[in-house]
Amino acid sequence: MHRRSLLAAAAALPFLSAARAAEPLPSLNFLVPAAPGGGWDGLGRAIEQVGVAAGLVARCQFENLPGGSGTVGLARFVTTRRGKPDSLFVAGASLVGAAIASRSPVSLKDVVPVARLTEEAAVIVVPASSEFRDIRHFAEALKSEPRGIPIAGAGGGTVDHVVLCRLMTVLGRKPLEAQFVSFPGGGATQSAVIGAQVKAAVAGWGEFSEQVAAGRVRALATSGERRLHPDVPTLKESGYDVTTTNWRGLFAAPQVSGTPLRALTDFATSLQATPAWKELLQKRGWDDAFLTGDDFQTFVARDQAETEAVLRELGLA
């Protein structure tokens, strides 16, 4: 057997044993392509919280690598984690769009789909001291003078950016007229809004729900089909035909297949079935979007094609 094949087989042995014995995985090493505090990081830490407590994995380690709206971390994962069965990459819809918009040489086509876990609406928030009391006043100002309202988000082509661009289109303005300010992660976006460094932000509901509850920011509207808070309307019910959500999930490293991949899929399946996971989803306003195997792979390919079409329509690709 080739030396590289022997090394890969040896590295997979703990995973194969754990899968056969239905014991906890010895470890999982996550690469999160964003700074701490954002949606991808939040999902990874939630997996650790529930997975360790449920006895599904003994320990988790994290590497946060922001940059390029996730594409920097993706490139690192592809080149350094190849064939490693204990490695997982946290990503989702925003990385699909960012890779297309930036013409990145790497995309989710270069990693192995494991499981789609969550779906989440975005929220438009403003500082607690903002002059914008509701979504109508914000939209009127955005339509009148878009360059005068700096709006924070995760990066070009992300769900945050797409929500803003679609709102601009509904308002009769060109998407690129908006003054979109890219930040490396949810934590930086939160700080910018709370500190009134920007006039507004678009981000995942889970990234701002605690700040909304504490009164640190004001939520104007969400981008889903249903309300996530009794006092926060959706864009659609407010008269703005914008409905966009953000899915997130897990991906294995290139060349991981067979039994090691099944072990990772079984881990995600067991995690999703725990009562603690369902409770966490409800608490954070995440929808259960569980999907694995060929169905998830087909979904990712379709999402890439549909996202590219949307970004072209908006002038972002």
Task: Tell me what the structure shows.
The protein has 317 residues and is α/β, with parallel strands linked by helices. The chain folds into two domains: 3-119 and 245-313, 3-Layer(aba) Sandwich (D-Maltodextrin-Binding Protein, domain 2), CATH 3.40.190; 121-222, D-Maltodextrin-Binding Protein, domain 2, CATH 3.40.190. 44% of the residues lie in helices and 20% in strands. The protein has eleven helices and ten strands. Strands 1, 2, 3, 4, 5, 6, 7, 8, 9 and 10 form a ten-stranded mixed sheet that branches. β5 (151-153), α6 and β6 form a beta-alpha-beta unit. α1 (3-21) runs parallel beside α9.
Defining key terms:
alpha/beta, D-Maltodextrin-Binding Protein, domain 2, ten-stranded mixed sheet, 11 helices, 44% helix, globular, signal, C4-dicarboxylate ABC transporter substrate-binding protein, BUG, Bug_dom1
Give the gist of this structure:
The chain is an alpha/beta fold and 317 residues long. 44% of the residues lie in helices and 20% in strands.
Please give the structural blueprint.
Layout: H1 3-21, E1 28-32, H2 39-53, E2 60-64, H3 71-80, E3 87-92, H4 93-101, E4 112-127, H5 135-144, E5 151-153, H6 159-170, E6 180-182, H7 186-194, E7 200-204, H8 205-214, E8 217-222, E9 245-252, H9 258-272, H10 275-284, E10 287-292, H11 293-313
Parallel strand pairs: 1-2, 1-3, 5-6, 5-7
Antiparallel strand pairs: 3-9, 4-7, 4-8, 4-9, 4-10
